[in-house]
Specification:
Elements (H helix, E strand, L loop, with lengths): L2 H15 L1 H4 L2 H11 L12 H7 L10 H15 L6 H19 L27 H13 L2 H35 L4 E7 L7 E8 L4 E7 L3 E2 L3 E3 L5 H8 L1 H9 L4 E7 L3 E7 L13 E8 L2 E9 L4 H12 L1
Antiparallel strand pairs: 1-2, 2-3, 3-4, 3-5, 6-7, 7-8, 8-9
Helix pairs in contact: 1-3, 1-6, 1-7, 1-8, 3-6, 5-6, 7-8, 9-10
Length: 322
């Protein structure tokens, strides 16, 4: 989730279980540990594709972070605790670090929980990357400086995440039935939570042939008509998809990809991540990759981002939700 929420989560962990023993320093140290896994943003310096591969990678691994907590916690006990309460500092470090990827996994982006041994990206689709309903109770708990308040906020957050995940599971089941009735045989279906509207879901599905279907779900109307997007069978598209950058993009998008080809002075292929799109433009995509093809091979590849019409999007979401 967003940086503020991750910092508050780490701070709430420190307040809930360790401030009485370690003092207020546990809260600030917990906040710092809650932010540490996102230091992988430095990979942006290695290029746009390396950033895509490594963000939410080893620094978000539930195999790596427990080991890191031993070192970081021991150092913290010496610097902040004067060498005392080593186990408590390590314990705090562990929970403040590990809760970061465990929260991220409830979003859509995808978290490599078992890196470096697996590059599988886990995503439960339970919450948007920004959600005040989850974040504000944590902020309140940290401000109140009470262990019980922090524990209640953490418990509420867990219930909220599980509820969102359960709703998405229901939406996937409903969408799958609608698709199969329409003759579309999905091998995978996602139900994504939009920012500020947890009562809505963007539905995206794909079949074994790479065709995609998109739609929406609302708590008042269920799953809307699902719009099919056929896979574009084109040599230029195949060249883009088979390139290293194309494979990275499809891996990142979990294969929920559509394509478009432009042929003028040069051949340009756009691959679209269909997980992310505006409700006001269901056929569109907010994130894409642009490939220039020359003589059947990729000579240029870059990630691109579309601009959303926020006014139209807000109107559409309000209409769907209420």
């Amino acid at each position: 989730m967003d940086t503020i929420t991750q910092g508050l989560l780490g701070a709430a962990v420190g307040q809930a279980g360790f401030a009485d023993r370690l003092g207020r320093r546990a809260v600030w140290f917990g906040a710092a540990c809650g932010l540490m896994p996102d230091f992988d943003v430095v990979m942006r310096a290695a290029g746009e594709w390396a950033s895509l591969v490594h963000h939410r990678g080893v620094t978000h691994s539930v195999l790596v972070l427990p080991v890191a907590s031993l070192v970081i916690g021991a150092v913290a006990s010496r610097i902040l605790g004067g060498g005392r309460e080593r186990f408590a500092w390590i314990h705090l470090t562990f929970w403040a670090l590990v809760t970061h990827p465990l929260l991220d996994v409830f979003t859509t982006y995808g978290t490599q929980l078992f890196a470096p041994f697996s590059d599988s990206r886990w995503a439960f689709d339970g919450v948007a990357i920004v959600d005040p309903i989850y974040t504000l109770p944590l902020a309140w708990a940290v401000w109140k400086k009470r262990a019980l308040t922090a524990r209640v906020a953490l418990a509420w957050g867990l219930v909220y995440l599980l509820l969102g995940t359960a709703i998405s599971a229901h939406v996937r089941t409903e969408a799958r039935a609608r698709l199969e009735a329409a003759g579309f045989q999905p091998v995978a279906v996602r139900a994504l939570v939009p920012i500020l509207f947890p009562m809505l879901r963007r539905v995206v599905a794909r079949d074994a042939d790479g065709n995609v279907a998109v739609g929406a779900w609302s708590w008042k109307g269920g799953v809307s008509d699902l719009l099919p997007i056929d896979r574009l069978d084109d040599l230029a598209v195949r060249a883009a998809e088979d390139s290293e950058e194309g494979r990275i993009f499809k891996w990142f998008a979990d294969d929920y990809v559509s394509a478009r080809v432009e042929r003028a002075d040069q051949t340009v292929v756009y691959l679209y991540d269909k997980r992310y799109a505006a409700f006001s433009d269901p056929y569109g995509a907010l994130f894409a990759a642009r490939f220039v093809i020359d003589e059947g091979r990729v000579v240029e590849a870059h990630r691109t981002r579309a601009r959303a019409d926020f006014g139209a999007e807000l109107d559409t979401c309000l209409d769907l939700a209420f």
